[in-house]
Amino acid sequence: MITSPLYFFCYTIEFTLVKQVAEYGLGNEVSTSGDIYSYGILLLEMLTGKKPVDPMFEGGLSLHSYARSALADGCVLQIVDPLLLSEDVKENSLISLVKLGVQCSYESPQDRMDIGTVIHELFGTTFASRSCDASGAA
What we know:
62% helix, globular, mainly alpha
């Protein structure tokens, strides 16, 4: 494992550059909508194990469009990081989280969820998962 301070500094710079929202590059002000976009991309990264700069994302394909297509095709579990697929993780929760990541990372700020809706969705996913655990259902 690499533990040099320079490595972490470089990783932080890469992470920061990757998370820049398109509208920031166009001279728009920092906004909560931009934060929602970054949250959505981060969520998709964690769920898929892929970075937005992955070589597979060329020719118009992006992490967002990759996840959005998987949702539309009903094959979300095929793009989820295999490390997340276990008996302890509910498939419906993973699908809900990918859907949330997509809804937060639309290119247009007007199409993104607002923070209140994001929190509501997260609580819904958490409590739905817990109620399945309590009832013994999958």
